[in-house]
Amino acid sequence: MEKFTDTSAGRSLVPAMAPRCWRWWYWTAWPRTRPPPAGCTLSVRQQFSTQEQTPQICVVGSGPAGFYTAQHLLKHHPRAHVDIFEKQLVPFGLVRFGVAPDHPEVKNVINTFTQTAHSDRCAFHGNVVVGRDVTVPELREAYHAVVLSYGAEDHQALGIPGEELPGVFSARAFVGWYNGLPENRELAPDLSCDTAVILGQGNVALDVARILLTPPEHLEKTDITEAALGVLRQSRVKTVWIVGRRGPLQVAFTIKELREMIQLPGTRPILDPADFLGLQDRIKEVPRPRKRLTELLLRTATEKPGAEEAARQASASRTWGLRFFRSPQQVLPSPDGRQVAGIRLAVTRLEGVGDTTRAVPTGDVEDLPCGLVLSSVGYKSRPIDHSVPFDPKLGVIPNMEGRVVDVPGLYCSGWVKRGPTGVIATTMTDSFLTGQMLLQDLKAGLLPSGPRPGYVAIEALLSSRGVRPVSFSDWEKLDAEEVSRGQGTGKPREKLLDPQEMLRLLGR
Ligand SMILES: Cc1cc2nc3c(=O)[nH]c(=O)nc-3n(C[C@H](O)[C@H](O)[C@H](O)COP(=O)(O)OP(=O)(O)OC[C@H]3O[C@@H](n4cnc5c(N)ncnc54)[C@H](O)[C@@H]3O)c2cc1C
Ligand SMILES: NC(=O)c1ccc[n+]([C@@H]2O[C@H](COP(=O)([O-])OP(=O)(O)OC[C@H]3O[C@@H](n4cnc5c(N)ncnc54)[C@H](OP(=O)(O)O)[C@@H]3O)[C@@H](O)[C@H]2O)c1
Questions:
Q1: Mean pLDDT of 216-230
Q2: Which protein residues touch ligand 2 with a CB less than 6 Å away?
Q3: How many whole angstroms from 93 Cα to the centroid of ligand 1?
Q4: Inter-helix orientation angle 203-213/255-262, to 10°
Q5: Ligand number, closest to the Cα atom of 350
Q6: Which residues are FAD-binding (predicted)?
């Protein structure tokens, strides 16, 4: 039971109040200026020492970083209350809108996040865009601490001529489209061409290549949107090139994802053995995961497949290939200038050693004809608010282990803290660390003292601005609707794409 003790008087301030009544008094009293309870001469600040009693913390963003930070805070502080603000009507960030539909096992983390959301010390407030509907200074005023976990919502531009041509898409938008991100639901990429080029050799590039090339019937039982499935069924794309500016030793994808590509039904890989010359000796020096990955690439490029694999490859109707040492220089237009017709690539060579290896142009170029270009060179965070420092070069909020530099009480976690790389497990570790720093600061008395109103104050602000947040139980209604819509076609869910329809379903 929480004890509210007037230490100087040595007696309880509200001895007659049961804890629940006390909470009611505390909540309803805010935001009016409260006189101290009768007979008490202490200031409100001294009475409650709320920071120790009930720290009010808010987290911005409900992706893995937001939920793992909340989980850590709730687990390690017995009274902390955490409000999670999310701009979408639905939670879970890239777990819903990024992770590929054919990787359902990755989405199991949603069960853990749901447990966190069900805590009576945690509340989800969707449909609230921080930076627009409510500012970070307003949140800081209302809470003892604010954690920014809003991810990386933009894509890294290529910065080359022709990037804006129809037929050029960021992988971010393409992924958002097949995963039902409301802002990308109208993307409708034209897949009537024979060849697609993906720029970048990370795991997102492989996700996109796999979705483009997987026989659509294999995606029918996933949560890919029906609209995307319809377009993929009509696709005429036969060849996908995945282009890297550096070499096989520098690819950013991982072995599990490469293996999946190599075994993708109905497809065969094309790798140029010349790209792998001299690599056999060099891989001895590299760390084990990179060594295993490069060995798999090397085997695929240079070894003759066994009879069964050779037969499988011979019957494949689609191909995919890795092109190395090619840096995008210009997107080439069709003769009428209205559509992409190809990509000009600068041939590169490597300079430097180890992590500092850089691709430098040799002066040669190569034109690769294609009707679709997907740029998969990374995501990018945006600044959220003028009050929050932001490093535009690194695309992160400057921080020391999650403490935002020069702004006490402000923290960050996830991709906005360390940049747009790392899997969910990496994001979990760094979010736990941020949570730990916050709790350390709380314990050390470094956070604002005195009570903070938390959501009560923000709710009033949002209401005055006509913003109507949705709760976690609202999400559970939408979730049930999606699951029910998927049942007819044997899918785990059919995602709702239109925020207006979602609000209507919630009776708004
Ligand atoms: C295409 C893709 C596929 C991936 N697949 C895998 C995989 O298979 N396995 C794996 O382990 N990892 C995968 N990852 C990596 C993983 O998704 C990330 O590590 C993780 O999602 C980062 O978490 P985050 O919370 O920082 O960002 P996010 O997941 O992006 O969450 C940020 C949240 O903040 C919200 N937000 C943004 N701005 C605001 C605002 N102004 N106000 C309120 N809310 C806001 C967003 O809507 C979002 O919900 C993938 C990444 C991508 C891009
Ligand atoms: N299945 C999974 O586990 C999964 C799925 C998807 C994503 N993820 C994770 O999510 C994170 C983000 O993935 P990502 O693929 O977006 O990023 P990434 O891993 O950083 O890969 C980006 C790729 O783009 C290239 N690139 C960057 N700038 C370029 C430029 N200007 N011109 C040409 N090429 C350029 C990079 O090459 P250089 O190396 O030369 O810079 C690299 O090949 C990663 O950590 C990834 O592992 C995981």
A1: 97
A2: 199-205, 207, 244-246, 250, 252, 257, 327-328, 376-379, 420-423
A3: 5
A4: 20
A5: 2
A6: 65, 86, 94, 130, 415, 422-424
Query: Does 112 score more than 60 pLDDT?
Result: yes
β-pair partners for 360? 349
What does the buried/exposed string (b/e) look like for 86-114 if buried means 16 or more CB atoms within 10 Å of the residue's CB?
bbbbbbbbbbbbbbbbbeeeebebbeebb
Using CA atoms, how far residue 310 sits from 161, 305, 328, 373, 456, in Å, is 41, 5, 33, 30, 66
For ligand 2, the distance from its centroid to the CA atom of residue 420, given in whole angstroms, is 9
Distances (CA, A) of 287 to 378, 421, 422: 24, 19, 18
- Spatial neighbors of 204 by CB under 8 A, at least 6 apart, are 171, 172, 175, 376
Q: Which helix (H) or strand (E) holds 451?
A: none
Annotated binding site: 65, 86, 94, 130, 201-204, 245-246, 257, 415, 422-424
Distance 422 CA to ligand 1 centre (A): 10
The DSSP element (H or E) to which 154 belongs, if any, is strand 154-155
Distance CA 237, CA 228 (A): 14
Distance CA 351, CA 370 (A): 29
Peptide bond between residue 328 and the one before it cis (omega within 30 degrees of 0): no
Give CA–CA dist 197/210, Å, rounded. Answer: 13
pLDDT digits (tens, 9 = 90+) for 46-69: 333 444 589 999 999 999 999 999
Unique residue bearing structure tokens 């060579």: 349
- With a Cβ cut-off of 6 Å, ligand 1 is lined by 60-66, 85-88, 93-94, 98-99, 103, 106, 129-131, 149-151, 153, 175, 204, 207, 379, 384, 414-415, 422-424, 427
pLDDT tens-digit map of 278-308: 898 889 889 999 999 999 999 999 999 999 9
Average pLDDT over residues 239-249: 97
> Ligand 2 center to residue 252 CA distance, Å?
6
DSSP helix/strand/coil, 478: helix
Take atom 12 of ligand 2 and give the residue whose Cα is closest.
421
